[in-house]
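**Tokenised fold:**
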Amino acid sequence: MGASRKFQGEIDRVLKVQEGVDIFDSIWNKVYDTDNANQKEKFEADLKKEIKKLQSASYEQALVDARKQIERETERFKICEKETKTKAFSKKAWANNQKL
């Protein structure tokens, strides 16, 4: 259940970014289609606002990627910790040596 919710969240973020790109493209076309200087300035301000939204969305994705990397490293640490805490002459250690 948790994995599907997490996956749905990632899908929503991607769709949100795509929607932002579509809005940016629409405003971009308006900037170059108009001859009115006041409208151009307004559209340029709108472009700036949309690009900031897109940049923050990519920042969020970078945080998600970093979090995943931290989780992977945490799992690696747990394995290392488990191996180093296993006593040298314990049954587990002997079993691991036999496997090698």
Remarks:
- The chain has a mean pLDDT of 81.
